[in-house]
Task: structure prediction
Amino acid sequence: MDDLSHFPSEPIPEEFYSEYEERPFLTCTRCGETLSDFTEGFQIAKVFRRSEVVFEYALCAPCHIGMIDEFSIESRKALEDYYKSNMTPGLGAQQCGICLLERESLPVNEFSLGAACLGSQMLEAFMICSPCMEKSNLLVSKKTQGIWNDFIDNNFPGVPDNAMPCPTGISIF
Result:
């Protein structure tokens, strides 16, 4: 793993804490291992609807990369091209990284937040508004959607498969 010390960092803001546990995420949603043990870092994702968290998870770098590797080649390529062409890095959690709308200006108050973290530090944060998430979700194959549905079924029993956006595939690791 590359040295991540070149990333500016700040303590993980409370906005990226687990809403349900009312504290920072401690374990990987997929493998259950302690997030602070991963020198490669971890990613947090949260989906908001009308300022309420409706979905959240944290994935260690190996699980995040492993899930992306399971995606179909077509989906990985389409998502990579989409984000490479459309994502503006470094905008943080208050502005959509794709359409550049400010959070408070979103026509529908639905959005996704993501953060790349290392230990107790946040290295990078991003926001993607609901319309931009929907555009990226249209790029995934049935195989990739099935992998996402399995992740939902295995980790969030009772949540309908199509209720949550597919992961972005964005990785700074």
